[in-house]
Amino acid sequence: MTGITAAGLTGASAHRKRPAELNVLLGLIAIIAVFELLGWLLVGQSFLLNKQRLMIIILQVSIVGIISVGVTQVIITGGIDLSSGSVVGATAMIAMSFAQASTGPAPVYAGLTDLPVLVPVAVGLGMGALAGVVNGSLIAYTKIPPFIATLGMMVAARGISKWYTNGKPVSFPTDSYAMIGKGIMPVVIFALIALLFHLALKYTLYGKHTYAIGSNTEAARISGIKVERHIVLVYAIAGLLAGLAAIVVSSKNLTAQAGMGMMYELDAIAMAVIGGVSLSGGRGSIIGTVLGALIFGVIISGFTFLRIDAYYQEMIKGVIIVVAVVADVARQRKRSRS
Amino acid sequence: MSDIILETRGLTKRYGGVHALTDANFVLRKGEHIAVVGDNGAGKSTFVRQITAVEQRSAGQVFFDGQEVNFTGPLEARESGIETVFQNLALADDLDVPSNLYLGREIIKFPLGPFSILDRKAMRERTLRALEATAVKIPNVDNTIRNMSGGQRQCVAIARAAAFASKLIIMDEPTAALGVQETAQVENIIRGLKDRGVPLILISHNLRQVFDLMDRIVVFRRGRIVASLHKDETDGNDIVSYITGVKGGSDASYA
User: Fold this and answer.
1) What is the pLDDT of residues A5-21, one digit of tens each?
2) Interval B106-121: pLDDT, tens
3) What is the pTM of this model?
4) Which residues of chain A have a CB within 8 Å of the CB of B105?
5) pLDDT-wise least confident of A266-275, B115-124, B135-144
6) Does residue B254 lie within any of the structural domains?
7) DSSP states of B72-86 as a string?
8) CATH number of the domain that B89 lies in?
9) Is residue B176 within 8 Å of residue B205, measured between CB atoms?
């Protein structure tokens, strides 16, 4: 049998789109170029050719970066997670209370000091995952919008972090716990987590189903994908990564406080969106999010480098987030028209 | 063993007080291609939805491949060998062609529960073979479905059904939104299925297509089957008379 060569069927390949990640990379390069130029003009030194600055750029985004890897997956399913910052606060407090050294003053659990590092790590990851399971179950089984479910968790988890010690910080971790977030460890952990979930999204059933659900939930269901179970899993992973970020940040700072992780959720979402992850689901990648995180880091460092006031930094950060979402919406409209 | 692949007896569906489908007696033989025609709201899609268990019937029996079946959902119907090309396509726009073909039945290279590693190469190769077998031409299967024309998307949906249907394919107006050339390609695929002996139920408004491709024509009117005719014993005008109710009383019943 011979197939019909339909001329009309070959047109689509011609306007194949540039991958979104490439655009983000070009954006990153452009932003670096601008800072480099302004650096020579205004400050009289190179922005990029400074090892210390490069390290800071990556270091300051790596903790929120860990969260954004989880948030990216949630957004790909068509959801959102507003709770990650508060979950960081609550899990940091709880994990730290199991990581205290006997040498410190007034530990939370006087009988439970000097525990092996595995205990606070397991507690932190477990609490984070639990918060994620609650989020995911609410969304998958009660069908309430992800925005509302995770908003509830955001408020509740912040409450837990304040209630846990009546607002008092938890400090003086054991040496081994303090190692987790020391030096460049946050960067290493961020890189490993990003690599792991890049592979999971690209090469496993998990990734395929995550994209399928975000792309067309009904098609996924008809095709036999257990949509509800998968959504719970994705939110559980996002919660687990928030728990991991809590461990790293509390270890790095040698203390946990009730206000920890404030606004991390928005920074994490912003990194994903700047990295080309579509808020309407189905599209985006960990590579994009990592590039988004780097853009974030470069902008913050760049402003500090140019000695621009911190207030302006926040304002401009807000503008960048809105621009990224506008670009995403414009892309959608262009696609649905064609 | 008989040569009947699908039979419905007294198939009935009511939505509250509305009788969408009444006492449908229908027989499909192995290798047979049957057209289901009728006006909008005549019960064609309702009929198909009861067979594929997208909805649960109010009364009646369905026999498939020699035994009575009570599918609880479309997935079960699919697992027993009934593939459906839905009107709304049921494709994931952001995935490429192999991912769509194998959605929900991915080939696994290394089992790790939900994190099982996909055999992307095997899925891609088998996709190319499936497209070839159905004479579907897609310039680049690695493109996402979103970037494809309506005809290409429809071809992907049909190729998916054709690749996996072991026993029966149901198509709900597959060419309704397509251009001339794209329609020709879909019709070519249907001819290929006929050659391969895969039974098919085609819902269509296009009588030219129905007479070109199908063996038998079943006419629905007001939720009832009013005619079941071999294409050689009827013609377009005859079918239209049944569709519009000029011919065939509402009490007609065909086995």
Assistant:
1) 333 333 333 344 567 78
2) 999 999 889 999 999 9
3) 0.86
4) 223-224
5) B135-144
6) no
7) SSHHHHHHTTEEEE-
8) 3.40.50.300
9) yes
Alpha carbon distance A297, A88 (integer Å): 20
Residue B83, in any domain of the structure: yes
- Partner-chain contact B74 A222, CB within 8 Å: yes
For the ranges A41-45, A201-205, B107-111, which has the lowest average pLDDT? A41-45
- Tell me the three state secondary structure of residue B199: coil
B154 touches chain A (CB under 8 A): no
Residue B114 DSSP code: B
Is residue B68 within 8 angstroms of chain A, CB to CB?
Answer: no
Residues 134-193 (A) with a CB less than 8 A from some CB of B: none
What is the SS3 assignment for B2-58? CCEEEEEEEEEEEECCEEEEEEEEEEEECCCEEEEEECCCCCHHHHHHHHCCCCCCC
Query: Cβ contacts of residue B106 below 8 Å, gap of 6+?
Result: A205, A208, B116, B118, B123
The ipTM value here is: 0.81
Domain of B26, in residue numbers: 4-244
Across the interface, of B92, B139, B188, the residue whose CB is closest to A10 is B139
- Whether residue B253 is contained in a domain is answered as no
Judge whether B150 lies within some domain: yes
